[in-house]
Every structure is written in structure tokens, then in C-alpha cells.
Amino acid sequence: MRPNTTRARGAGAALAAGALLLTACGSDDATAEDGGDAEGPEATGNLTVWVDADRADVLQDAAADFTEDTGIDVELVQQDFADVRDQFVSQVPTGEGPDIAVGAHDWLGTLVTNGVVAPIEIGDKAEEFQDVALEAWSYEGNLYGLPYSIENIALLRNAELAPDAPESYAEMVAIGEDAEVDYPYLVGLDPTEADPYHLYPFQMSFDAPVFGTDSEGGYDAADLRIGEEGGVDFAEWLAEQGSEGLLNTNIDGDLARENFVDGNTPFLITGPWNVPAALDADIDLQVDPIPAAGDHAAQPFAGVQGFFLSAQSENVVAATTFLTEYIGSAEIQTALYEVGGRAPALTESFDAALADDEIVAGFGEVGAEAVPMPNIPEMGAVWEFWGTTQAAIIEGDGDPAELWERMADDIAGAID
Amino acid sequence: MTTTSPAPEKSPAAAEHPRGRRPPGRRHRQAERLAEAASVGWKLLVVKILILGALNAVAVYAALVLFASDQPLVGGAVVVAGILISWIYFRRGGLPAKYLLPGVAFLLIFQIFMVLYSGYVAFTNYGTGHNSDKDDAVHAIMLQNQERVPDSPTYSLAVAERFGELSFVVTDPAGDVFIGSAEQPLEQVDGAVVDAGRVVDVPGHDVLDFAEVLQRQGEITQLAVPFSEDPNAGMLRTQDAQSAYLYTSRYVYDAEADTMTNSDTGTVYADAGEGAFSSPQGEELMPGWRIHVGLDNFVRAATEPTIRGPLLSVTIWTFAFAFLSVATTFVLGLFLAIVFNDARMRSRKYYRLIMILPYAFPGFLSALVWAGMLNQEFGFVNNVIFGGAQIPWLTDALLAKVSILLVNLWLGFPYMFLVCTGALQAIPDELTEAAQMDGARPFQAFRMIKLPLLLVSLAPLLISAFAFNFNNLTLVYMLTGGGPRDLDAGINVGATDILITLVYKVAFVGADRDYGLASAFAIIIFLLVGTVSVIAFRQTKSLEELN
């Protein structure tokens, strides 16, 4: 009996002591948060900025200038870019989040729906930015972030195989076939998900955007346009390209890049991320607009990166000043372009970058005509059905019009 | 894990010892205590006092802060726990508790807390749009629905103070200077000194410099100065204390009635207990907030047709996948173990080494490599083994299931091979010899003698392998991503999705996350795995009687 009772007592005590450690952890958070509240007004302020590794060096300089000018310390916390959105959404409500974080504009819907991001007002400075960048960071009429770079896909051309830029899709295929290599042109696809992002320019050329826009120029979830006539035309076009072997879901992004680098195709539809590989292979590289397959312009999606402000920030004045005056300055925008290789969002830096590098200029010119990727949360429901349906159509699994219309119905159902 | 600790059995044995029968006298106990104290050594005692002192100091500080910030429950828990720790380590005896404490503490933090927390989430509506508490939601709605009046000018701003009250001093584009505070609508002032478009001095007020502005930035960004006596004309607000803009707010919060009113349409949104403000037509304002929803998530899983159908088919496939994975890997592993355990086999060492190789690669990497090798057109399997036949390994529903099982066989048999080899070598050869003397054929000897003995030691491993494969997210996600998608199902679910990948998709994929529902699924999975394991362990107990 005796040893048993001792053990039970010991275990009970240990459990309770464990509870102390647990609660001590909890209390740590509480003290940090409360301390922050209490000190807020007296402290000269301390900005916390979440930034990814690539952007960190440039921001380091901006932060040093800011501290020198205002006396406010800027703490840069490095985060993996892909993790920022989820971390931000879960940490801001606990009071542990940053004042400013780096991100992509298509996160906005999630951030706004979760109430973790605050609108910013940059006033007349808005005129200094590229339109597409500001549109992308606007949601329901408010601007939510300060954009710094625009990223989009374009047509990479191997000028040795195809000396001239194609004017239309048919011309591109004709040039590609005349080049007598393995593939007339390539775009990376996935066997089950295809790639709606890379195929979107073609879809746009059939006048089939995903959503219509409202009076403020933002995307309107209630106006689902993907299932309209243009969408069906696009679906039939996809099936045709699939049966002719021009679109092949077994060639993924890596294979497509490899074939382009090896000179097996004159054209590759891709983004700036594949440029270094092509340059390393000494390809005579040109960047052209994507040729239209339908009657309209082949506008790709633009992804705009920027910095946004937390809804729970205690340092709104300092944070806004840092955003507009420092991150929004030509010096920093140009520096961010130099490390990222993507077209800057500030027009002054954009023009400088275009003059400076013809590859960036190629992407930038396409990007200026691009449409921002929808930033409304309903877009999540679209991605879910879009790619799988495209893959099925390209592989010839059923009637393209029927598959496309069912997809549109499913999306409409998921949004409601 | 099932064996009981020997400690309770030991004490009766100790009691039978001749000297143990007589109850120890007082002097004897005193001597024991002295001996114990002496054996610890004073240096250790000092260290002990220092560590416990530091711990208690932290606890006292934490408790004070907690009580000061109105968290008496957590504060009380800290006090109780602090007392308990001191009591355990300062009193004599209770040695097990001293050793158990750190382990139990970590168990509580890293295991029990996680389990309880995800259990708790299953009973809330935590997910996209229901991310924080109600105050934050109100704050965010107000913030997001302030709209700058279209085409209104930018006012250059200075912040002035009188008797602690803040005012905005603004210069409009025409160069006229206005002043206003929270109570006092904007009115024109004369005699202000303007430098480079910004007011630097106003009679009767102190103009704040930038450092002072930063000190009071919370107040300044909260300040809303009415543009005129008419409240519909909007408010001047600032975000950077340099420029002010004219805003109108689309929503008005009424704290008394707890409603949000849209000032454009007049719609009243009330808190209907669903974790968001909703209009009479059922339209919800986002963001909402987290609330307890009781068993709602479980009810949804069982009744909502778009969830129930896929959940059922996914559950069936999960059981099939886990069972077949264990069965195939075990059979192949056992077969190879027997073959390589045969003394007639030459260079067994090298074969064994090769057999274990798949086990040495990280599982997710292997799965990715296999995904490439199974590519319909360019994959190694179709191109080299099947001579260019375009077999849709990963895009056909049935073949994808077969591929998953085959890849898992490749990944999993080395483990089974290892443990079977170990278990086989532990069975004495004499048993087989004896069986053969009795006239048993080799297969009979194996089936009647060796296999039951093997199962005694391997059954728990097979059960844990089942539980592991039941939750084998890595393989499924890296190989097929749950695909090929079922185009007929209304939700994002594919032919090879198992329960855990479904949970992952509900919780972390796409913009619409539902942590509550995912946690409810997780609890269902736990119950399923737990039930299967308990039944299986009960069944295998009968095997133990063989020993």
C-alpha cells in the first residue's frame, strides 16, 4: 500500500507543478502584451517589421535611416515569405504580431476577412505608383499595403530558334514548328491540376476573366464571369490544343524549363524565376508579350508584393511614415528591385529599371498591361475547381463545354 | 508499455526480509534522515536552494503581474504550482515525485496541452473570418469601412495641444488654416505661422514636434475631428500625423444595442450568437469572432451532404490503405527476412544492406521522386519498364490507389524486414528442429511454431504501423496530393485522400480555413485509431499465452 500512495501523491504533485510551468508560459505572453500596452504611450516607439531574407538587407538600410531621422528603433524579424500570411493571421489577435509585414497582394482577402490588416492612406503619393500595383493592393475601395514589386509571366523566346516575336498564337505555333525542334512552344502544367495561372493569358484572350469588377474597380465575387460564353470557347480551345499535343499535362514546370534551356523549344511561357537558368545556358533570350489565342489581348495575372500594416499596431504614425516615406521612396524601391529582379511598383523606379535591363523591361511592359490576380477570398474556391477541370479537358476526359460549365456551377455553389 | 512497473511487487518482498518486520524506531529514522542529508552534500543543497529560489521568484513576479492584469485564475494557478514545486523539492522523501516532475511538466506542455487545445478548438468556430475576439472584430470593421471622401483634398497637418487636449491644425490646398478637436468642429483661425505649407505656431496652442507626436501617436490616430456641425460631412483623420483626410464611416457601432448599422443602406446588423454581426436577411459582416459552437462541427461532419459523402468514402479508403500497407509490407518483409535468415544463403550481409536502403531515404523525398518516376509520359516506370506505354499511374483513380500502395510497399518493407529479422533470430533453432523431428514439413513448422512466436513480439509493432499509416500524410501528399480529384464531388477531395490529408486540406489549404471542423475530424480520427488499437491489442493478448 505505502509505495502506491506515495507514487500517487508524487504524480499529483508533479501534475500540479506541470500546470505551473504551463501557466507560466501563458503568463509570459500576457505580461509581454500588457507591458506593451502600458508602455505604449511613453516609449518613443519601436517598430517590428516581418521581412523575408531577400528583402532584409535592403530594409536594414531603410531602417537605419529611419532610426537616425526619428529615433525610433526598427526591429526586423526574418520570416519565410510563404509563412508570413498564416503567421500574421494567427499572431496579430494575440498581440504578438508585427506592425508591418511583407506579403503578396492576393493574401488581402484572407487578411481583411480575418480583420488583421489596416487600410493605409498615402494621399497624393498614389499618383507615383503603377496603376496595376495600387489596384492589386486595394480591397473594397481601400488601399491596404504599400506595393514594391510587380511580378507576372511573359513569353520567353530563344532568339536563335525564333528571330521574331510572334503576333498571334497561330503564328507562334507556326514559328515553333518551322524551328524543327521537339516542341513548338511549352508551358509547364501538372497532370492533375494543369496550371490556371500560366494558362490565364489565353483564357483572357477569349474574354473570360474569373470575376467581373465593381464600380470601385475591385473584383466582385457576385459577378462570376468564368462560365460565360468566352469561358466555354476557351475550354473548347483547350481540348483542341490537348488533342493536338500542343498542351501536355505531363510536362511540368521543371521539364518545360529544362527543354527550353536545352534548346528543344523556341518559346516558354513563364515568369522571371526561370530567367537565370536560361541565361546560365547562354540562350539568346528575349521577353515578349504572350500572343493571343482569341480575339482579345492575352493579359496575364500580375502578382504585386508589398508591405502592409497590422490592424493592432500601436505605432500607426511611425509605421505609416516608414511605409510611405521610406519603403515608398525611389531609393528603396530601386534597391528592392536590384535584389529581387522584379519590376518596381513606384513609377520612377519602374522606368529606371526598364531602361536598365531589357529582360526586366520585357516583363515590366507585359506587367503594365496585366490584370491583378483577384485578392478576394472567394478566389480560393475558384482555384479548387479550376485546375482539375483544365487538366481533365486537356486530357480529353469528356466534353469540354460540359466540364467547364459544371466547374462554373461548382464554383458558384462553393462561393455561396 | 503494457508491462506493469515492478515497484509494487518489490515492497512485499522487502517486507518479508527479517529486519524489515520490526517497525523502525524514532532514532533509526532520525539516523536515516541524517544520512540522507549528509549524502546530498552542502554544495548541492545550495544549488538546489538557488534554483528553487529563482523559480519561486519568477512565480511570484508572474503571479503579481497576473493579479494586476485581472487574471486571478491563471495567477492563482501559478501560486498553487509554485507552492507545490517548493513543497516537493524541500520536503524529505517523495523521491519519485522529484524525478517525475520535470517529465510530467514537459508532458503537460508538449502533449496534453496540445491535445486539449485541439480538442477545445473542435468546439469553436475558429477559422477564416472567426479569428479573434469580438472587440477586435468591431475594431477591424470600423477600421476597414472608413472611406476617404472621393476627390477630397489632402490637408497638410500639424497637431496642437492645449490643456492636454489635442487638436488638428490643418492647411487646406488654398492655404487657409483651420483648427478643430474631437469636440470642436473645424473652424478657421487667423494668426497662425505657416512654414513650407505646415503650421508651426498657433496662438494659444502648443504645436507638437515629431518626438511628441510619436509619444502620443495612439491618441492622434484615434482622433477624429468633425469637418462641420453636420455629422454626415465626415471626420478628418490622420494616419501619419503629416496629412489629414476627410473620411466617412460606412458602419456605425452602437455599443448599447450591440449592433452595426450601415449608414448607406440603413441595414442593421445584430449579434445573433453566430460569431458575427448579421443582417435580418442573414448576410454576415466579416470579420466575425470566435465563439463556442458546442457539437456543431461534429453535427456538420455527420449531416452536411457535401462533407458526409466524401468523409465516408475517405474513411473506407483510409482503413483499406492502412490495412493493406501493413499487410503487404509485413508479408514481403517477413518473406525476405526468412530468406536472408537461411544459413545457406551466401553474402547475406550485403543483401541485407541493400534491402534496408529504401528505409534510409527520407520518406517525403522518396515519394516526390516516385511521383516523377510515375509520370505518364516521361516517367522512368512507363518509359523504361513498360517500353513507353502511357499508363496513367497517378491520374487514374484506381491506378493512383495501386501506386500509393506500391510506393508504400517499397518504403515500408525494409522496416518490416528489419524487425522480422530481429524477431526470427530470437527464436531458437531447436524449436524448428524439434518440429522436424516430429515429422512437420518446413512450411508447417513455420506456420505452427515460428509464426505464432513471431507475432507475439511483432503484433504491437504491426498495430503501431497501422496507426502510422492511418495518418501517413507525407506519402499521400507528396505522391498524389490526394488526387486525382473527384470532379463530381462538390468539395476538394480526391481518390487517394485519407482522413489526415482531408483534415490538412480543411485546415490549411485554400483561403477558407476551418480549424474547428478540422479539429473535429482529428478527434474522430483519434477515436477510430484508438478503438482499432484497443481491439487489436486485446486480440493479440491471447498470443502472449503462448510464452
Automatic annotation (TrEMBL), chain A:
GO-annotated molecular function: carbohydrate transmembrane transporter activity; maltose binding
Keyword terms: Signal, Sugar transport, Transport
Residues annotated as signal peptide: 1-32
GO biological process: maltodextrin transmembrane transport; maltose transport
Pfam families named among the record's database cross-references: SBP_bac_8
Entries under Gene3D superfamilies matching the protein: Periplasmic binding protein-like II (3.40.190.10)
InterPro entries tied to this protein: Maltose/Cyclodextrin-bd (IPR006060), SBP (IPR006059)
Keyword hit for Kinase: no
Superkingdom, natural source: Bacteria
A Gene Ontology term for the protein's cellular component: ATP-binding cassette (ABC) transporter complex, substrate-binding subunit-containing
Family: Belongs to the bacterial solute-binding protein 1 family.
Name under which the protein is recorded: Arabinogalactan oligomer/maltooligosaccharide transport system substrate-binding protein
UniProtKB/TrEMBL annotation, chain B:
Comp. bias intervals (Basic residues): 19-30
SUPFAM superfamilies with a match to the protein in the record: MalF N-terminal region-like, MetI-like
Domain of life: Bacteria
Compositionally biased region (Low complexity): 1-15
Membrane topology of the entry: Multi-pass membrane protein
Annotated stretches, region: Disordered: 1-30
Record field: transmembrane: 45-67, 73-90, 99-123, 316-341, 353-373, 402-427, 448-469, 489-508, 515-537
Major site of localization recorded for this protein: membrane
Record domain ABC transmembrane type-1: where: 315-536
CDD domains to which the protein is assigned, alphabetical: TM_PBP2 (cd06261)
Functional description taken from the UniProt entry: Part of the ABC transporter complex MalEFGK involved in maltose/maltodextrin import. Probably responsible for the translocation of the substrate across the membrane.
Protein's UniProt name: Maltose/maltodextrin transport system permease protein
Species annotation: Nesterenkonia xinjiangensis
